[in-house]
Write a structure and sequence with these properties.
Largest sheet: 8 strands, parallel
Number of strands: 8
Helix content: 40-55%
Radius of gyration: 18 Å
Structural class: alpha/beta
Shape: globular
Strand content: 15-25%
Order of helices and strands: HEHEHEHEHEHEHEHEH
Bound molecules: pyridoxal-5'-phosphate
Length: 242
């Protein structure tokens, strides 16, 4: 294979972008009366070559998110992952669970009992417990995975009874919105559900993490209580799909 030579200008812009997004996240947190340290910035690395990801890590990224199992496993040996947390954020097929369990610190995209059971089964076989988030399709879009809000509590209670998995919170990708107020509406719906479930103190259901907000709307998400914002293109530039 030919050696990949990273573009210096792009490396520089990854560095600048990461720092700029990081400070905007901190400012948004302060503005919302929150502590800047309460919101984590995830660098979303799908389609991005390892050299650029490593530059983001060098300038402070300590949480990365990948969408595809295959892509992540193919890149991970080139990444400087010491002290970096890895999350799977893309749709996960049941038949890929064996490959990813134990390779990431969290699976954010759990959207069915069947998938949770398989993660639990594989994790127990390996003597580990996998941290997961349940993905909510807050805008009820056919094109997106995630469960509807109406199904959330039932699914949480079912997953809570499975060994080998530990629910840590919720994840969502809202619809593309025309206006700021529209996206706030979705984020507020999530914030409320997150708080309600937390208040109910359901057994084996932790509500520690609310993962929402991407390049176009992370500041709104921070205002609405997100504590992981998942930012890709605002750090690495527009994605090229091959
Ligand atoms: C790609 C992706 C992101 C980041 O999207 P950007 O708009 O590039 O910031 C966040 N979350 C998930 C689940 C994604 O697939």
């Amino acid at each position: 294979m030919e050696k990949f030579i990273p573009d210096e200008a792009r490396l520089k812009s990854v560095e600048e972008n990461y720092k700029a997004v990081k400070s905007r996240v901190e400012e948004a947190a302060l503005k919302a009366g929150r502590k800047p340290g309460d919101v984590r910035l995830m660098a979303v690395t799908k389609t991005v070559e390892s050299a650029y990801i490593n530059r983001a890590i060098e300038v402070g990224a300590d949480l990365i998110g990948e969408n595809r199992v295959q892509e992540y496993l193919g890149k991970k040996d080139e990444l400087k992952l010491d002290g970096v947390e890895k999350h799977l954020i893309g749709h996960l097929q049941t038949n890929k669970v064996k490959q990813i369990v134990g390779q990431v610190d969290m699976i954010e995209s759990v959207d069915s009992l069947k998938l949770a059971k398989e993660i639990g089964r594989v994790s127990e076989n390996r003597g580990i417990v996998s941290d997961i988030l349940v993905e909510v399709n807050v805008g009820k879009e056919d094109s997106k995975s995630g469960i509807y809000m109406e199904e959330l509590e039932e699914l949480l209670c079912q997953i809570a009874g499975i060994g080998g998995v530990r629910i840590q919170g919720l994840m969502t990708i809202p619809p593309i919105c025309e206006s700021e107020s529209e996206v706030f509406g979705y984020f507020e719906t999530m914030q409320k559900a997150f708080a309600d479930i937390k208040d109910r103190k359901l057994e084996n259901v932790n509500m520690n993490i609310l993962s929402m907000g991407m390049s176009g709307d992370y500041e709104a998400a921070v205002t609405c209580g997100s504590n992981i914002v998942r930012v890709g293109s605002a750090i690495f530039g527009a994605r090229k799909y091959f």
